[in-house]
Amino acid sequence: MLENLFIQTFSVSVQMALLLLPLFVTDRWLTRTFSSQAKCFLWLVFGVRLLIPITFMFPLSKGNATMQGSAGTISSAGSQAAYPQPDVLSQAFLPSPIPTFDAPIKPFYEHLSLLEGLALIWIMGSICFLFAHIGLYLFHIWFLKKSGESSLSREQSILLEQVRKDMHIRRDIPVRISSHAEGPMILGLFCPVLILPQMELSQQQLVFIFRHELAHYKRRDLWIKWVFLLAQSVHWFNPLAHILAKKANLDLENACDDTVLKGKSRLYRKEYGTVLLEVLTEQSHRVPLSTNFSGKKKEMVRRFQNIVHPSSKRNGHILIVCIAAGLILLTSSLNPASVQALNPSVLSQLKAARTTPEERAATKALLTECLKGSMFETYQPFRDLPLTDENYQRCEQAEESYRSLLEKVSPAMQTREYTNHPFFLAVDSKKKGEITSGLFCCQADNQVDQGQIMLIELEFSDPFHPEVFEIGTAFACQGEQLNQRYFQRQSEKRHIQTIAEQFQIDLSQYEEAFSTVYPSVIQNQAYLLGGSIKKQLAQMGRYSFEKFSLNHTWAYIKKDHTEGVLFNQDGNGIYAHFFRMGAYTDRSKISGEENWYPIIENRCIPQ
């Protein structure tokens, strides 16, 4: 979970960096052309986008998806190595040898992959960055409020009240004068306080300061600064995220100035700029998450010039929104971070990094022993074979598609969770031409210590939606028994097909319901329908002659998830019980197991 979040956050960070670079380069042009408020909105779009750890993607056709998935795949033809040469990103996340130490530290390092280590460093860095700034912010609030030596005089309070009413601000904001404050500022999101430095100020200067700080409050600038702090915390490793916050802070100040000076004369602007310049020169550092401003001399001069000599600028809201939305959506479409759209080579290597090389080698050796002497003896993990680019990419996508599906199995089905152990798609090493089938080999939690491995046959002409056939559990040195089990399953499948034909049912539109390896069953969490049907039949006297045993029944669910059918056969005849499939979320709200899969029709063919 943490690794996936780190991968997606890193992907979003890189995408946003590619978008921010040209905007930072053209920042002067943007400043001359658009208003500060428009730029603030643009920076806010990027700040919010950085906090969303997903990448949006439009639905793609199969052809486009295949082209997208194949980007960056490196040919493995003629390779003598165990794996094809990975690309730079996948190679960066491969598990590397880590020196071990004396117990009890050794077990931790043995199971910690490089990807997990990077994810832990990222989350710890984010927490430390955020807590450090929040701690500094809380300290300043406590210190400045506590050191507030006095409040406003009666004349100053009347002046503040007049400014507050002129700006249509209903809230009464308390004021504290502190000798430790270097400049005026507002602190606090929910209980804001206006802090003033202990210095001689005329009434006109106080009016300017009051208008400026209250404009910050009215514009909700403190909330916006929190957005950028969170973005900096999540993307602390990305220097462009910090540059973004700095530029946003400067434009927030300029936009606040524009709000105060809207419609004012040049003389008023000059007096306002002079007061701010005098106040700013007294400040040496910025208090985090406040309206306090501290910048370089060049930034102060540029701000003063913007105040005294304003130029006509476009609001540009529509254009800015179009630029931001268009670039973000374009990058998301070209560089999707979803499971099915990421480069399969990168994703599969990242998934494999969860297990150690020793575990993967042991599972490969067990697979070889289980397949020896069986009809699948020539099958090997496809990464160990010199495949063509097309075959390699198709196998990789099929493996990941099915792996992602298995991870949706209900947590209650512990023996069917294939989440912590190595998995492979094995294909026929003697196969020539296009490869469209193979064995998905994995282990449930209760199979690892017993030396067993689960075999699931996949047909992946469409690698994004592979067809499934469950072979079952394989044991070492029992290849003949594996053959018998496979042919037994095929014979059973033909027998059920014959039964379905008698009821005029096309089983190609259904999937086995009692097995937790089939897509529609997994997506519907339909593991308990047998018990539901049995309880319903027990309430129907009409079918009391039926000898019903779950061990002699076969249940199927339609691939469109609308309904299903359960077959039963005894000495009196064969039966087909059709039931309705409701959405899994709806079933969870229904009390009574017998009500989850209501029977809509019963059929019987006597013998």
TrEMBL record:
<dbReference type="InterPro" id="IPR052173">
    <property type="entry name" value="Beta-lactam_resp_regulator"/>
</dbReference>
<dbReference type="Pfam" id="PF05569">
    <property type="entry name" value="Peptidase_M56"/>
</dbReference>
<feature type="transmembrane region" description="Helical">
    <location>
        <begin position="119"/>
        <end position="144"/>
    </location>
</feature>
<feature type="transmembrane region" description="Helical">
    <location>
        <begin position="38"/>
        <end position="58"/>
    </location>
</feature>
<keyword id="KW-0812">Transmembrane</keyword>
<feature type="transmembrane region" description="Helical">
    <location>
        <begin position="6"/>
        <end position="26"/>
    </location>
</feature>
<feature type="domain" description="Peptidase M56">
    <location>
        <begin position="9"/>
        <end position="307"/>
    </location>
</feature>
<dbReference type="InterPro" id="IPR008756">
    <property type="entry name" value="Peptidase_M56"/>
</dbReference>
<protein>
    <submittedName>
        <fullName>M56 family metallopeptidase</fullName>
    </submittedName>
</protein>
<feature type="transmembrane region" description="Helical">
    <location>
        <begin position="316"/>
        <end position="334"/>
    </location>
</feature>
<keyword id="KW-0472">Membrane</keyword>
<keyword id="KW-1133">Transmembrane helix</keyword>
